[in-house]
Amino acid sequence: MDLQLPKSEYPRVVIIGGGFGGIELAKRLKNKPFQVVMLDKHNYHTFQPLLYQVATGGLEPDSIAFPLRKIFRAQKNFIFRVTKVTDVLASENALLTDIGKINYDYLVIATGSTSNFFGNKEIEENSMPMKSIPEALDLRSMILQNFEKSLIEKDADKKSALLNFVVVGGGPTGVETAGAIAELKRHVVPNDYPELDLNKVHIYLIENSPELLGVMSVQAQTKAKDFLVEMGVNVMNSTRVLGYDGHTLTLQDKPIILTSSVIWSAGVKGEVIPGLDLAEIVRGGRLKTDQQNLIVGYPNIYAIGDVAAIITEATPNGHPGVAPAAIQQGNLLAKNLVNLVSNKPLENFKYFDKGSMATVGRNKAVVDIGKIRFQGVFAWFTWMFVHLMTLVGFRNKIIVFINWVWSYFSYDRGARLIIRTFAKDRSIDYQTDDVASVKEVKTL
Amino acid sequence: MDLQLPKSEYPRVVIIGGGFGGIELAKRLKNKPFQVVMLDKHNYHTFQPLLYQVATGGLEPDSIAFPLRKIFRAQKNFIFRVTKVTDVLASENALLTDIGKINYDYLVIATGSTSNFFGNKEIEENSMPMKSIPEALDLRSMILQNFEKSLIEKDADKKSALLNFVVVGGGPTGVETAGAIAELKRHVVPNDYPELDLNKVHIYLIENSPELLGVMSVQAQTKAKDFLVEMGVNVMNSTRVLGYDGHTLTLQDKPIILTSSVIWSAGVKGEVIPGLDLAEIVRGGRLKTDQQNLIVGYPNIYAIGDVAAIITEATPNGHPGVAPAAIQQGNLLAKNLVNLVSNKPLENFKYFDKGSMATVGRNKAVVDIGKIRFQGVFAWFTWMFVHLMTLVGFRNKIIVFINWVWSYFSYDRGARLIIRTFAKDRSIDYQTDDVASVKEVKTL
């Protein structure tokens, strides 16, 4: 069944995904001769760089998300639908979705990335990813629930597992999450759980390669590790995770770790829509595009952001999966689409590297901007400033700012409600709400 | 299996429920010769008077809830456990819970109230209550989802049902919710859903009795109704709801209403724990107590707040189920317990009526304080001030204040994320998240 959309005299650009790339593209097409249709499975944009703060009780989910409809309030050529795309019918220039069939003139895949478990089903089943708001909320609930459960657990092994928190993956997300849990342990747990022996709470950060923050300078890598160690995190580099059954984490050539909490930030892969030619998927599950983000082999299907890989000699694996790359690609694609319909020459993508940064904890961050590298308090303020400025929405900026100021002076983290969105059953074995009344659970 | 709790030389007071009454009681027992054990199925206190603002996108859940452990950080004789009480074994002075058996010397039931469907299973199954944070979040998601779904619905009846919002019950919660939805319709929907015909969005407030806000002055009742009508709400007094199958709302002597959204605020009943003598349950499902909140027939089991009814000639149905009554009873019970163990005479409860108020919308509220009655802008500011002051936690006060100031100037409501906690299946029929990965869903 065809989905009825408002009619337009202009060609239709369908954008799948309201992340950084999709939003930039749609904005830049304002007042241009296109009908812009955005599809997303959520009704909001997620500011992914701050998800770990939601997961660790520092921020409310509403303050790092933004209703997509609101971003485009004043844009007349913009249409939004909450839906999940199930198939691309490239030969018909159409998409299948759970609300009907949608035709396009130009299709842009801006679906971002999802957690990569590298085919290990057991780890996928038992560990907690952190790529969306519901996942971050579940993680927050799990961490807090494990503290609650540790108080009533009599079995020593099980108790120890509840208090061992393992973060797998030493990229920015892993480093930031491990640091945030270390701060929870230091500033929140002693007050909230005076009965608990703090010496039994352990935080591990496990990374396959010999260094943390692979993409950053050696200086940043070393300092970040120093910060983490100083904060009490057990950093284990050159360590490979073999399996995790929900209770025992198995490592290569190292002793096992008993743990109820494995947070998986070891890798991402492009979130590819079914129906495209799989031959064009390269390393990291990304769609191979030319330098104008056109997917190789299709005349009118583009990919931008994390799901796209512009393969050139200089970028054999594509560009980094970060917000600035997505935004720059969205921006350029808008220009190129306008040029295309006005028969002007198209431009190739040039990535402007804005640098990279990661925060480890209070007054502790590392920043690389080109040749400029700094760490510590000033880096921390830089990190906060950049994230506040990038956050969508004035209200969100204020609320996040106040939460940060408040946390800075109180050493506290305010958002500690245990509210499950959806959960893997392992993480709760005592049941405290009227779930009997739930007939079927669905998450939008 | 007995739950192990820290040992104490003092008698143990077990409080079931971290609402207004339970918190007040526990606080007042600080540094007194008791061990205080609080049990709650959530790890947070819910500020119920503002739940409707969470349900209508005005506030984030985290800003009207407060971690219970944090309230009692500095209280050495306080122990908290997240659990659900399943039975009272009065003859053994013990409770059964889902984490084990707990003994008490004094038991205080402060479980509050739950939605009362007056035995109508069909309505219970299909309507949305709003007594907890997960329920308020589900309601928020349902309202927003129904707008999204209305855009793609082709069947005229179904479309009309999606855009008819019915609030049942004309007490403060019903009035406030209907008013908030009217403001959503007026200020948010036109911007977010430019494709939608606003004339098709209808809001109904249905009340059994001839007036709204039964407990308030005639002046307040009349003015509240005027405000609602002015804001476009169809107020239907003297109207009895007979049934609701999820699509058709049946009324006595009136035409049916097609609606996908029925919000149930027509009544509450005490949330009674199994195991107590049911003979002592009075009207509204409340536990009958003497004037010192001792449940009739038990030597050491008390009830305070919404779940309690102090039956005297002056109060044949007990006191109003409002925060001040619960707080005052908690306060007095603390004194009386201290007096009891020091063999001093006990005091009877005297209710100090602080007045009542309800907000209908921007600049529109009604306030009764004794003989003083006022309505409009000043009442609205009074309402906001009182609620801000009563809200637990400094950070919450600031965040709520900023949200209100921001909404006042922007006419917007910031928290519009669709995140389901648990859902009745009727409310979503298109599925947009990876629920396939959910093995079992539990809500804490």
From TrEMBL, chains A, B:
- Taken from the record, one Pfam family name reads Pyr_redox_2
Q: What is this protein called?
A: NADH:ubiquinone reductase (non-electrogenic)
Question: In which family does this protein belong, per the annotation?
Answer: Belongs to the NADH dehydrogenase family.
- Identify the keywords attached in UniProt to this record, alphabetized: FAD, Flavoprotein, Membrane, NAD, Oxidoreductase, Transit peptide, Transmembrane, Transmembrane helix
Q: Which Gene3D superfamilies match?
A: 3.50.50.100
Catalysed reaction per UniProt?
A: a quinone + NADH + H(+) = a quinol + NAD(+)
Question: What organism does this protein naturally occur in?
Answer: Pedobacter changchengzhani
Organism lineage string: Bacteria, Pseudomonadati, Bacteroidota, Sphingobacteriia, Sphingobacteriales
Could you tell me one molecular function GO term of this UniProt entry? NADH dehydrogenase (quinone) (non-electrogenic) activity
Q: Where are the transmembrane segments?
A: 377-394
What Enzyme Commission number does this protein have?
A: 1.6.5.9
Q: Where is the External alternative NADH-ubiquinone oxidoreductase-like C-terminal domain?
A: 354-408
Per the record's keyword annotation, is Transmembrane helix included, yes or no?
yes
Tell me yes or no: is Metal-binding among this UniProt entry's keywords.
Answer: no
- Residues in FAD/NAD(P)-binding domain copies: 12-330
From which domain of life does this come? Bacteria
